[in-house]
Amino acid sequence: MPENGIGASSVRREDIRFLSGNGKYTDDINVHGQKYVFFLRSDVAHGKINSIDTSKAEAVSGVVGIFTGDDFVEVGGLPCGWQVTDRFGEVMKEPGHPVLAQGKVRHVGDPIAAVVADSLEIARDAAEVINVDLEELPAVVDMKAAVEGGTLVHDEIETNLCYDWGFVEENRDAVDEAIKSAHHVTTLELVNNRLVPNAMEPRVAIGDYDASNDQSTLYTTSQNPHVIRLLMGAFVLQIPEHKLRVVAPDVGGGFGSKIFHYAEEAFCTLAARKLRVPVKWTASRTESFITDAHGRDHVTKIELALDENGMFQAIRTDTCANMGAYLSTFSTSVPTWLHGTLMAGNYKTPLIYVNVKAVFTNTVPVDAYRGAGRPEATFQLERVIDKAAREMGMDPVEIRRKNFIQKDEFPYATPVALEYDTGDYDATMDKLHEIADLDGYEARAKASREKGLLRGLGINCYIEACGIAPSNLVGMLGARAGLYESATVRVNATGSITVMTGCHSHGQGHETTFPQVIADMIGISEDQVHIQHGDTSNTPMGMGTYGSRSIAVGGAAMVRATEKIIAKAKKIAAHLMEASAEDIELKDGSFSVVGTDKSVGWGDVCLAAYVPHNYPLEELEPGLEETAFYDPANFTFPAGAYACEVEVDPDTGKVDICSFAATDDFGNVINPMVVDGQVHGGIAQGIGQALREHAFYDENGQLLSGTYMDYSMPRADDLPSFVVDHSCQTPCTHNPLGVKGCGEAGAIGSPPAVVNAVIDALNKGGFDVNHIDMPLSPSRVWTAING
Amino acid sequence: MATVTMTVNGKSVSGEVEGRTLLSDFVRNNLNLTGTHIGCDTSQCGACVVHVDGKAVKSCTIFALEVEGSTVKTIEGMANPDGSLGVVQQAFQDNHGLQCGFCTPGMVMSAAALLDENPNPTETEIREYLEGNICRCTGYHNIVKSIQAAAVAA
């Protein structure tokens, strides 16, 4: 393994500040003279605001300003970034999403009023004496009830159905026919449970306004500050980009939940302009639970048609996807283009039809959470395959292998619009067999039985579409943004390099891994490369970090910019050595003339660029700084195979994860240590979804699992150590690094492995249980066992 | 308002606080030691763990006035005298025991307290001790590894 550059497990430089308490998260920023905002939020899921009396609150000493929806009538609502067109060619229903509620509240947590005061305590105290005449209305929580009508979340659109999407609509009849005439059809109805992303850092927003130059600054916990600047500036507050700076400093985890533009960001920015004081909001965890976009929440029926040999003939799915009360920024794309397109999985199913009904309910908006649509696709597919194998008396690995797209069949066009560039699914399955020690399974099962426990083994595959995304393609599919990434590579006069990227690191380790790439390209030490991100004022316009895109898209932009740097540097070196640029070779940080012993160092060339005394000024501009925007030609397709072993206590229904093994094909890997860490974290979130986590609403729209005492976050003693491997590598064919991305894989691949293992354990233990919905809590498992 | 005095990271400090001021807020707001983080409001997440008189304490569960006269150590006090990372901190860096870094100060403080009590913990003992610290990034795998490495290095 190399000690420097691509492939090295370089320890993370950013860790030093995080480990010594010197990280700078948004809540660590205090702007001189700042005031504090407290939002008065709805405690009912659905209600009509008859009146709001703020007079008592205004009289509280220390209150600087009080705002209600009336103060935000002149500004835009929070925009949705993706327009989905339904089966019938109609565009989706897109109700307004005001910054502060106007006329109605639609979920517990919807902001009714905001108090700005000298301290948070004063703001909170004042909010308590705001008198809201709120007429509670019946809430609609269940998606089926919502589709059937009755209570409307948004009166003006006269339905709770956002869209009824069919994909591929032209395949619908052929799929129906294939299922009708199939040798065997396996049907499974399942729930993909609603989750709360729960980044450990709660969201924070600080609005600041400088009247001397009419400049607004927003400090915010965001994965994509440029996107926030564009959405908030252009669509909500009408502030042009050059008058608006968005800063996302150290961000304590995102997992998707910090992609979106939230009301509090717009509020703090506007309130600071109106009040001429900085305005700071820090979410309490309780607020996070009822205002951060939730994830998943699909109810699905999937049918898999097979021939007598177990070959997949067709798949038909019918899904209801919860949008919550409003359309969050990318909510509409998740159950459609990030879900339906993945239904082929790793297999050669010739006919697929996916139907998705997106539904408004009186719950917190739902949007992308680690994996975003792909975990939902993978879960239903890998669960129905396991059920089919059981029904047909086949081995679950064998049925998968015989349906795999073979390694010599790439590029492979699926019937759901994707073209996989590379893969070798048998190789990852073979590797899984080895690292999970599947040969030793029976002995372990025997040992479990001797303890009175039921042991089960769950195996599944996954594929995901990452490196989001080709702009022209997603534009055709309804995206209202481009999805390229940018990088400016600034070589300093003494040879060090500053890379300004539109990506954002909130745990991924870009500050360490991105320099590894440049160090490799130029042949200098990683220490000479610094990564700058998170501030729209000093980074080029880029789309941020999500969808496992940073290295595949942002890294590619950085490579392209560095190639320009090298090309120019070669011309400078050629001038210095009185040679032709075509004859210059760059190796180990030194430029040499091929076939001679002439050479000049990286530092000398950089210095010549900035002190151009001996420089081809008639041909070249001084300086060494280049920008590249990279728009990917295709998605990337990480894929892998996962194995989970569980022990189930039949007396209590408690499930213990005994082992978890993951083999992933991420293509080329920049930093194996960081990649391992990404997979570990994803697996933990997937196990959390499978066994513990559930954002549970009662019929009145109250979130019953709204604190860490009720929402069961996986803790250290709930999880085993993991066995992970990414040595099977089929490099991506269309980006310059051959990388695929690794951030979401663990969360996508792991839930079906856990559930398959539990179902396997129960069946081997003599219990005829086909499925249990996540989370597989002891009570649910016990109930399944005991009928 | 009342005055509270304590020793924090080896220095005597005092400040004006309300009766309801939590130690976590005092450390962050009065002392500007922002390494101590607030991740929840129900004393569940452990991002705010500090040492009070040598014991790991969630600083959001204790009022500033309650630690009058006590010795407090925060993440900012964990480095070696020369400013380099201490043993536990270094083990976290070497073993990729952190990602976003938000839970990290609490994890390091809990880990250090564990190793004070039990210099050679098993994996199970480490996992059970960390019950009060939530990490969303690492899946705990490398945190456990870091603490094992710190135990060996100490």
SSE topology string of chain B: EEHEEEHHHH
Low-pLDDT stretches of chain A: none
CATH superfamily of the largest domain in chain A, called what?
Aldehyde oxidase/xanthine dehydrogenase, molybdopterin binding domain
Q: Return the domain count of chain B.
A: 2
Strand order of the largest sheet of chain A: 3-5-1-12-9-10-11
Strand content of chain A: 15-25%
Q: Biggest interface pair, residues each? A: A-B, 56 and 55 residues
What is the CATH class name of the largest domain in chain B? Alpha Beta
Query: Helix count of chain B?
Result: 5
Helices of chain A, by number, come to 19
- What fraction, in percent, of the residue positions of chain A are helical? 25-40%
Number of strands of chain B: 5
Shape of chain A: globular
What is the C-level CATH assignment of the largest domain in chain A?
Alpha Beta
At CATH level 3, the topology of the largest domain in chain A is: Aldehyde Oxidoreductase, domain 4
Secondary structure class of chain B reads: alpha+beta
Summed over residues and divided by their number, the pLDDT of chain B gives a mean of 97
- Low-confidence sequence ranges of chain B: none
How would you characterize this protein structure?
The complex is a heterodimer of chains A (787) and B (154). Chain A has 787 residues and is of the alpha+beta class. Chain A contains 19 helices and 28 strands. A seven-stranded mixed β-sheet of chain A has the order 3-5-1-12-9-10-11, sandwiched between helices. The two termini of chain A are 54 Å apart. Chain B has five helices and five strands, in the order E-E-H-E-E-E-H-H-H-H. Chain B has 154 residues and is α+β, with helices and mostly antiparallel strands. Chain B folds into two domains: 2-76, Roll (Ubiquitin-like (UB roll)), CATH 3.10.20; 87-153, [2Fe-2S]-binding domain (DNA polymerase, domain 1), CATH 1.10.150.120. In chain B, 32% of the residues lie in helices and 16% in strands. The relative contact order of chain B is 0.16. The mean pLDDT of chain B is 97. At the A-B interface, helix 1 and helix 17 of A face helix 2, helix 3, helix 4 and helix 5 of B.
